[in-house]
Amino acid sequence: MGSKNKLKRFRENETFENVIQPSREEVINDALKLKGNWNEQVFKNDKPLVLELGCGKGEYSVGLAQASPDKNFIGIDIKGARFWRGAKTALEEGLDNVRFLRTQIELINYLFDTDEVSEIWITFPDPQLKYKRTKHRMTNPEFLDKYRKILGNPGYLHLKTDSEFMHGYTLGLLQGIGADIVYAHHDVYGNEYTPKEVTSIQTYYEKTYLEQGKKITYLKCHLGE
After folding, report:
1. What phi, psi does 221 have (nearest 5°)?
2. What is the CATH classification number for the domain harbouring 57?
3. Is 12's pLDDT higher than 90?
4. What is the rounded average pLDDT of the residues 194-211?
5. What DSSP string runs through 180-194?
6. Which of 87, 89, 126, 176 has the most CB atoms within 10 Å of its CB?
7. Using CA atoms, how far apart are residues 65 and 46, in angstroms rounded to an integer?
8. What contacts 200, CB < 8 A, 6 or more positions away?
C-alpha cells in the first residue's frame, strides 16, 4: 500500500464514528475513561463484549458482528490503515455492534476491566518463529495472563490459524496452566463438529491459505480464574 493511500485511510478513520484511536499516553493514563465502561458509554447496552486481537482488515470482526447481533465486538490492531476496510464496511452496512480500536495489544489491561470481556478471538496471528521474537507471540504466557484477567467466567479464548506450530505451541501452554480445552482440531474443514462461526467466516488470507491446500486449525478454551 502506498504512503498516500495510507494517509488517506488514516484521515478517513478520523471521521469514522466506529473508530477509536487513543495515544499510548491516553491509554496508560486512563484518559478515555472507557475501562469497565465500554458497553455503557460506547455500545449503550449490556450485551456480551467480544474482542478480536490483531484484527487486520477487520473482516472477522465484521463477520462476527453480522452473525451475532446479540453481542458487541471490538476489533483491535495498531495498524489503522488495515482495519479501515472493516470499519468502512461496518458503517456502510449499518452495523452498530462493532467498533475498531487502534492500540497495542499489550495495553489491553489498561483498556478493559476485570471480567469485562466475554470472549477473545485471535485469527491468523504471526507465529513469530524467530526465537528472539517470542515475546511478540500473541499466545505467549504473558499475553495469556492478560487475557485471563479481563475475561469473565466463563470467558473464552479462540485461536484460528493456518500455523500448526502456533496451534501446538498454544495448546501446550494451555494444557500446562490447566486451561479447560473446549475444542481443538488441526483441520476445521475436515471435522463435522467444528462450530459454524469458525467455518462460515473466511478472511482474504484464509481463502488464500485454503487455495494453497493449507489446513486451518482452531481451538477454544476457558482460561480459568
Report:
1. -145, 160
2. 3.40.50.150
3. no
4. 93
5. EEEEEES-GGG-TTS
6. 87
7. 15
8. 63, 67
